[in-house]
Predict the 3D structure of the following.
Amino acid sequence: MAPLSYGKIKVLDAPQTGKTISVVQWEVNDLVYKIKKNIKDPFNKEVYAIVTGEDGTQKIPMFFNGDKEWVFRFSSSTVGEKSFVIESEIKELNGKKGKFVITENKKEGRHGGIVLNEEQPNRFYYEDGSHYFNLAFECDWLFALDYGQDEISKTEHLLSLIGENGFNQVVMNVYAYDVDTNWVQDKLLAEHPEHNFGGREDIFPFLGSNAKPDYSALNVDFFKHFDKVISEMHDKDIVSHLMIYVWNKLVNWPEPGSAADDMYFEYVVKRYQAFPNIMWDVSKEAVSKIALEKFDNIGEHIRNRCIDTRKLDAYNRLVSVHDHGFCKNNMDVVDFVSIQDWKLSIHTQMLNAYKRYQDKPVFNIEHGGYEESPYDVFPGGYSNAEACLRRNYLCLFAGTYTTYYWQGAAWTALIYNPFEQSAEFKKPHFEYFKYMRELFDKVAYDKFVPVTKYNVRSYNLTNYEDGILLQYMPKEVHSDDIKRHLDKEFDWANATQQWFNTITGEYTEEKKLEFPHKYGFWDWRPWRNEADAIMIIKNLKKK
């Protein structure tokens, strides 16, 4: 079969019965079946591929792709041989068979889907067993950036910037419409409509438009474009933290639990579950005031949707909900805890969450830091770049994961090429996070735990196994008096000391750890009053 192509998905004509198909582990393949007859109500037909291999059996839902096409979208986390047979109420599809031979994926940086680990349940891992350092980038309107274009060059450019600067996840909506116009008052944004993606009536997941929806069917062209976006992210090894519903973006959703709502929700799960780079977020602002005012029993509806996701998703992608209150009260249906916490005491808040939810990863999906951009789209609680960076570090030093927001990419504004804008445009500090990612990849973040007994004027992460201690010190701090703790708990005779600059990514020379002064906080530290710094102490031995 000659491969077709759209996006980075390998698209194949439907195989002849018994035909063996060669595929690569963790790559996405579409087997396209074209039938002869038009089918009434095609989005609600039961069509499944039953896949059997040494690792068990999967019941993978197929989806309607318009123009009498049905797609079996397949990926495999294991190598070897698998066979499949289609079970369908559509006669032309029922009983179709095939075989896969799956070979090892040798692409550098390819590790499979995101999973949990029983031995360390509060950390994210890849399917190959390596740690997934969840560093997310909010981009609500990514789906709209190249909408209607054959090529997605702007999307590719932005995703390249995101990946090159250490981010390995995008927090994104399947669809959003607009924000309250009272929030978008910036004249400069009005003068640059090419950066404003809110309120477009030509983009809608159903027929019709957001203003005049037709819920009788889905807009397949919308999802074909979205395929390209998710596939490009997968190609760049960037996870899609996919929010299926969003309640504060003026979307004209059908009534929760209605036939149209079921059709939309199920279609999203059917169409994107085969992508290893998917993490489900069933609902943004799940039980917010907006949702509660509009719909009755929204909390129960979202809970049922979490359960529905697990039933329909044959790949068992991780599930969460963008609402701490919901997660706290529904721990049995979420795989990780999403928290939206803007408090000034962010480290304390996240540390309390880390201690409370030891059996699940904790992810502060929105900590109030919205780094300033040319447009004051939504300033959050903190817009200074260094203040936003510090809040991200304080989440990490509490043992939790974090998200970066830039006003030029969050909400309706989307500047896909910020470093190519004119001089008067304020540029983002993506590089701060590149340095962050490099540091935590280097020291292996998953091995560290927050230890508050060392904290006097700094924040601590300790790796007892390898004898490494990290002290995060705000730029105003001279140093921390950790000597007394080291004397009591560690043998530091062979320990070394090195400093890391969070703004420049610079390291000092690694040298023997010494405390010339009896008060450790009187000892010299670099970049005081210039940059927050992290002291890296290695080769400690537990007494």
Notes: Residues 220-235 form the longest helix (16 residues). The radius of gyration is 25 Å. The mean pLDDT is 92.
